[in-house]
Amino acid sequence: MTLATAEQSAFPVSDIDPFSKEYLGDPYPYHEQLREAGPIVWLRKWDCWATGRHKEMNDVLADPQTFSSSAGIGIANFNNEKPWRPPSLLLESDPPEHTRRRAVVGKVLSAGNLRRLKADFEVAAEALVERILEKRQIEAVRDIAEPYILKVFPDAVGIGKSGRENLIPYGSAVFNAFGPQNDIYRESMRGIEPVSEWIMSNCRRENLRPGGLGSEVYDAVDTGEVPPDEAPILVRSFLSAGIDTTVHSIGNALWCFATHPDQWKKLCANPGLVRSAFLEAVRFESPFQTYFRTSTRDTSIAGVPIANNQKLFLSAGSANRDPRRWERPDVFDIERQNLGHMGFGAGIHGCIGQMIARLETEVLFTAMARRIASIAIAGPATHRLNNVLRGLDTLPLTVTAQ
Ligand code: HEM
């Protein structure tokens, strides 16, 4: 449903298309336009409301009763149209079901479980750094980000070794499907059926290593905390949300360091900064840029009336550089107080996997900072366009040993 034209025109209206190749290739000038147009803006192209400001995004995420996730966190409105796959039982659900499921998954991803994984991550990171130093000239997405995550994360979940290459196209398709059915979406959906079948087969109990994170979800079936039919879809959440996001966060962070050599030197001199350095990279170049909510009643934001069942486009990438919230927002500063950024979301759907993502990346960057003195760009970096993710396809680098 579109608003009546007269009513709409009393509020900022924008022709920005956040799913165009121009926007996705370089979103930052568009973010600024969106933020400066107003706290809430009508996107004419997609007949939906949008905000690029930190405060309004935070307000929306803090009120899940009014701004629901169960109608989909992409542009498709599941109240009006059929989702392409059974919706996520976490990301695309509301309380009370969401609360119950999140408690179970929170236990599986508990600090105790993560502590047990750290030693394996360290072994993988050390071996990777060794290989990088032998090569010196590397392509960081294929030599660091993808092999590291495709080793440590599926190992942690308890997925077999063969077929892991399916995880990247699956993640790409899942995130592209949060956008409209444009060329980028169609390209990533080509040949997706066997990939989806591989994913669902690896979410079955008999294919998960006992003791892994996936099989712990099934342990919650035995205790009656999770209905049996929910378990494979909950395991699927790990595989959908835990690969591309983290691969991109590593590629983006390496790009930040290569283009800000002083910040890499600072990290090498003080490895204790690794936690805030990674969070700053997620603020500065957010991998998960865009998601939606759907209004559940007539309401208003910043004085703008929002009708029931309207989609709201939320730009985390823009909120993370909103000058109303951040000093020098366009500066990559690993010592910044960056708590409260939207790179991992906020409120009840805030990323439940962020502790494992942070552990994976902190271990990797600690190992790199110990052995690698400098990281320099060695050729043009290219982006892998995705409707809602921001990440690199290629990042040629030269690395120098300490
Ligand atoms: C740097 C890497 C990551 C980034 C940037 C990221 C980002 C996000 C964001 C922004 C949300 C909130 C979306 C919303 O509110 O609609 C989210 C939710 C979620 N993430 Fe992550 N994520 C990352 C890694 C992971 C990993 C490794 C896992 C798997 C364990 C994971 C699993 C999830 C799940 C299951 C949710 C839904 C939580 C809920 O609805 O309660 N994420 N993530």
Ranges where pLDDT stays below 50 over 5 or more residues in a row are none
By CATH, the architecture is named Orthogonal Bundle
Give the % helix: 40-55%
Q: How far is the N terminus from the C terminus? A: 60 Å
Give a brief description.
By secondary structure, the chain is an alpha+beta fold.
SSE blueprint:
Elements: H1 5-8, E1 13-14, H2 21-25, H3 28-37, E2 41-43, E3 48-51, H4 54-61, E4 67-68, H5 97-108, H6 111-135, E5 137-139, H7 140-157, H8 167-176, H9 183-189, H10 192-202, H11 213-222, H12 231-241, H13 244-259, H14 261-269, H15 274-284, E6 290-295, E7 299-301, E8 304-306, E9 311-315, H16 316-319, H17 354-371, E10 372-377, E11 382-383, E12 392-394, E13 396-401
Helix pairs in contact: 6-7, 6-17, 7-13, 8-9, 8-10, 11-12, 13-15, 15-17
Task: Tell me what you see in this structure.
It is a single chain. The protein has 402 residues and is an alpha+beta fold. The chain has one domain: Cytochrome p450 (Orthogonal Bundle). The chain is 47% helix and 12% strand. The protein has helices at residues 5-8, 21-25, 28-37, 54-61, 97-108, 111-135, 140-157, 167-176, 183-189, 192-202, 213-222, 231-241, 244-259, 261-269, 274-284, 316-319, 354-371, and strands at 13-14, 41-43, 48-51, 67-68, 137-139, 290-295, 299-301, 304-306, 311-315, 372-377, 382-383, 392-394, 396-401. The strands form four sheets. Strands 1-2-3-9-6-4 form a six-stranded mixed beta sheet. A three-stranded antiparallel beta sheet has the order 5-13-10. A two-stranded antiparallel ribbon has the order 7-8. Strand 11 (382-383) and strand 12 (392-394) form a beta hairpin. It is globular. The termini are far apart. The chain binds protoporphyrin IX containing FE. Residues 69, 73, 90-91, 102, 237-238, 241-242, 245-246, 249, 282, 287-288, 291, 343-345, 349, 351-354, 356-357 line the site of protoporphyrin IX containing FE (HEM).
